[in-house]
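## tool: complex_structure
## caller: assistant
## args:
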Amino acid sequence: MSTSSTSTALKEWPLWEVFIRSKQGLEHKHCGSLHASDAPHALQMARDVYTRRQEGVSIWVVPSRAIAASEPNDKPEFFEPSGDKVYRHPTFYDIPEQVGHM
Amino acid sequence: MYTQSFNVPEPGESTASAGLKAVPKALNAQEAALQAQFDARIDADGKVEPREWMPEAYRKTLVRQISQHAHSEIVGMLPEGNWISRAPSLKRKAILIAKVQDEGGHGLYLYSAAETLGTSRDQMLDALHTGKAKYSSIFNYPTLNWADIGVVGWLVDGAAIMNQIPLCRCSYGPYARAMVRVCKEESFHQRQGYEALLVMMQGTQAQKDMVQDAVNRWWWKCLAMFGPPDADSPNSVQGMRWGIKRISNDDLRQKFVDATVPQAKVLGVSLPDPDLKWNARRQAHDYGQIDWDEFWATVNGNGPCNKERLGTRVKAWNDGQWVREAAMAHAAKQQQREMKAAA
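## result:
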């Protein structure tokens, strides 16, 4: 018999994030999360929960705890440095009209 | 299926925590700045995402509303599930299974959305199973015959869609995204119900009478699904301020009545309200008084099926205990095997 603390830990199936490729040629896109005991189980659940109407041709499941995410509070420091680099966009450059599309 | 206005305080929850009469604590400078940022985002119709700062009352309101919504989807499977084995044809049985499976899926999308706010699945299920959490009281009425299943699709899901469409624009990102998915699927629910009734209305007099009888029993309960009149919904103002609620209870109810009257005409049934008539001045239908005492009695646990629904739900959960444990034991064993093989 396991100790009471392990049985509490085992109580809830772990959380997985689900990514779905809606059709061949497109990227996998995050569509939600679910609880499952292991990876094959998570894949099966993802099929039932997120692709009941042929929404996908391929599924990834990733343990939620394996995802590293940027901190919401870091937004300015983390993303702003690219804000003043307008020269990274093609529209920064004036090209004579007679050149046409470039 | 659900109603956005059915966001009632649960036992043990003070109204202050629901943000109703919250006496604001003195905020320190940092909190005040965060609050100002949050307000500005809401005013600009922006979205709030998980792990971002949000007022505690906003978080609590969302946890309560989204979990009540999820519970409603799960309990909503029960009145219809009862009819799977008795559906009149293989086609209707397949349709009903798909619909009930959708409701289960909707519950899962919503539980996931609520979990992003820091609550756990176990906590939410525990609240449902101990009777602490509410769910839409429409499911505490019985589905007496096959016509009820059609009417549940047409009217109950119809009312739910009316409620749920504005939630697709809710300020909390995960809830809004879950609702987009739910609404896409819900449209099939309403159409299949209406179509099942159309077929019955081409049948014998007895079948037509069954449809009319079911409409008579469900109509007023569906109107009550939109929640108390605006004047008696102090919750609504704060919900609107936060961009959680977009359209008031009475406005949604009016939209539902106006949309349903012509549908009833095509179907060939009457709606059981002598006061229901077109008001040319308002360009809308007038309708009679809703029995709010009955509504609140059902919300507070005294509807015809409250005990049965919760009992069925708890039994299903308890009966599934060994499956959940076995799945975890299997996963642990597989993992150990892999580790041994790698060593």
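## assistant note: Chain B touches chain A through 28 residues (CB under 8 Å). The first helix of chain B runs from residue 29 to 43. Handing back to user.
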